[in-house]
Design goal:
The protein has helices spanning about 15-25, 30-35, 40-55, 65-75, 80-90, 115-125, 135-170; strands spanning about 180, 180-185. By secondary structure, the chain is mainly alpha-helical. The protein has a two-stranded antiparallel sheet with strand order 1-2. Strand 1 (about 180) and strand 2 form a beta hairpin. It is globular. GO terms for molecular function: peroxidase activity.
Length: about 190
Amino acid sequence: MPRIPVVATKDAGLLTKLLYRFAIRRFGAVPEPFAVAAHQPALLRASGIHELLVAKAVKNLPVNIQELAQYRTAVRLGCSWCVDFGTMLQKHHGLDIERLKNIDDYATSDLFTHQERLALAYADAMSDTPVSVTDGQVAELEREFGRAGLWELTYLIGLENLRARTNSALDITDQGFTSGDACRVPLPG
C-alpha cells in the first residue's frame, strides 16, 4: 500500500475521472501512480500530458533501446512498479521479455545486441549516485544513435529516474500488469 492512499474514482473530480477512464482503456487499469498523483490534479494532468508528448516526440531511437534502457533504470533503482509496467510495455511492443531475466548480465550476454549493451550501460551510469557517465560513453552513443537519438535516450533514462524515485519514495509497488509470462492487460487491438 502506498504511503499516500490512492484517490478513489468516487472521490475524484470530473477531469480526474476522465483521466482514469482513459487509463483504463489504454492499460486495462488505472496505474497506481496516477491514482496517487490525483491528490494534486494539476500535476496529474501535467504529468499525463508530458507522458503523451514524450511518447509522440521520441522518433529516432529504436523501441527496443527505449524500453530496455528504461527497464534497466527501473531495475537499478528498485522500482517494482516500473519493472512490472515496463515488462508489459515491452510485451506489447513484441519484444522478448524472457531475456529480461538476464538483464543483470547484459554486458556479457549474447541475448543483448551491441546497441542495447551501450544503452544499458548508459542507463546504469545515469542512475548511479553520483552520475558516472563518461565523455567516451557519450561519444560512442552519439556515433551509434546520432545526436537526436542520444538526446532521446538521455531524456528517457532521466524520466525513468524521476518515475522510479517518485514511486519508490511513496512506496508504490508492482500492480500486477504482468503475471509470469502472461500479461494481465490484453495486447492493444
